[in-house]
Amino acid sequence: MSWLDVFSAVCLIGGALSCLLGAIGLLSFPDVTARLQAATKPQTLGLILILIGTAVQLDFVYASGLILVGLFQMLTAPVLAQLVGRAAYRADSVDRDSLVVDELGDRIERERRVR
């Protein structure tokens, strides 16, 4: 067993644990904003770790495809979370009293006053 195998195993186990913790948070957190955090950050980290653990075992030609998958995930997950969060906010699914800063609420109020 080489150090590359150990590194790969640590990355795969760490990624699986991160995904598991994200799934548990997704099921147990009370509101939409907390669930979005659980759905994006640990899941993205877990996927990246799993991809790294897999890529170190492959030739570079095949690992380069995994790099593209990781980059695509890192680009799309925050954008989708932002869109879902805005939709939930506009549908009154977010407890606005629990927000520390409410920039979207201020912007919506300014737009209503202009109209």
Automatic annotation (TrEMBL):
Record key words, sorted: Membrane, Transmembrane, Transmembrane helix
Transmembrane in keyword set: yes
Residues passing through the membrane, by range: 6-27, 47-72
GO molecular function, one term: sodium:proton antiporter activity
UniProt key word Membrane: yes
Superkingdom of source: Bacteria
Pfam families (UniProt xref): PhaG_MnhG_YufB
InterPro entries: PhaG_MnhG_YufB (IPR005133)
PANTHER family per record: ANTIPORTER SUBUNIT MNHG2-RELATED
Family from the record: Belongs to the CPA3 antiporters (TC 2.A.63) subunit G family.
The protein's name: Multisubunit sodium/proton antiporter, MrpG subunit
Organism name: Saccharopolyspora shandongensis
